Amino acid sequence: MPAQPEDRSPELVRGLGLWDAVLLVVGSVIGTGIFITGGDMARVLPHGGLLLLAWLVGGLLTLAGALTYAEMGAMLPRAGGIFDFLKAAYGPFPAFLYGWSCFLVIFSGGIAAIAVGFAEYLGAFVPVCSTSTILYRVSVAGLDWQLSGGQLAAAAAILLLTTVNWLGVRQGAVVGNVLTTLKVGAVVAFLAVALMLPARVPTTVLAPLPSHGTLVGFGLAMVAVLWTFDGWYGLTFSAAEMREPGRHLPRGLIWGTLICAALYLLLNLAYLRALSVAEIAGTPRVGESAAAALLGAGGARALSAAIVVSAFGCLASTILYSARLYLAMAREGLFFASLASVHPRFRTPGRSLWVQGVWAALLTLSGRYDQLYTYVIFVAVLFHVAAGAGVLVLRRTRPDAVRPYRTWGYPVVPILFILGCLILLANTLAERPTESLLGLGLLALGLPAYATWRRGAGQG
Which residue ranges form the domains of the chain, and what is each CATH number? Predict the structure, then answer.
């Protein structure tokens, strides 16, 4: 049932400024990915210069997406982000399917993955929190389930940060800002030392190109790059809580993306100064290995501590923006009506936060979030294609709408973003056809759910 106007009070608080916006983008993007993806990339693209080029291209494509989404976010400064973009451009059905996928797996599974990554690094300092510490194991009807210390620590982190965000948007933003500032400070400190020290290995940036497989390898490396940038769009879901969304949302998206791209490029340059491409390909934790090679065991341990903070900060930012989607869905009559309310005292989407937090924690404890998350990679990119094309549709269907910001380089920039997503889409389908089709199957589960909520809305 759609919420009635009288049910929409109190409203969310517009308490986020430009600095909050920039830090929310940076906090949502930088987690553990930049410290671990290098090995996978070097195995398929064994060339230092091409690895840096992949990060540069990924940063430019992400920036194109930020410029594209900035126009729609400033035009529709609500709590739904991409949900609102899809609804305005195409109607409620594709918007619902996006929100359904986010709740079922994309956002919830992503939160679970970030939380387990945090617990895994925390386990280096507190062994009981490691995913290798098995606390309980049971086998029923041939199905094995085990509970690790890492799963418990991850679920606890989700519920703790859900509580912080429930208590107020400023409380959530302050915690996120502090954690993001700490992790950026730690990364900058590492870069300052790593880039000033003499290179441990000869540079491979200008080495001769591989004789074959370069194009395929570059495409596979780009998958890792773009997923390491994932989360850059999170600010659009908090537009309803920004003091001046028309000004601060575009600037926050753009500056946040530029900061992440710069840090990613510099970190990979530091890795290439510390390790050969072969060494990078042979390590699952390139950040730690590079720190150990340049600074010794103490440096590696210090960077590991920074990664713990980084993962926790990324989790805090992701929880903050994700729950706003379900509030927007409920207010459109496309989700549980009870989630349309704002907490009368804390002025946060409390019920949405808790439903999201409990479901993400259950996925964490189930141990199946990673399989589910793999299935929706194809679907997630598909929605980015549709959302990116939304700015072209809305320019045509709503030419007179107020647009505080217009996409720089329109229509070239949005088209480049769409093409980049289509390439990633084709690569995902080619490399993971089974998972892609299963992802579409999970999406199809939303069809009867949509019919149920629309029927309820019609009866209301």
Answer: 5-455 (1.20.1740.10)
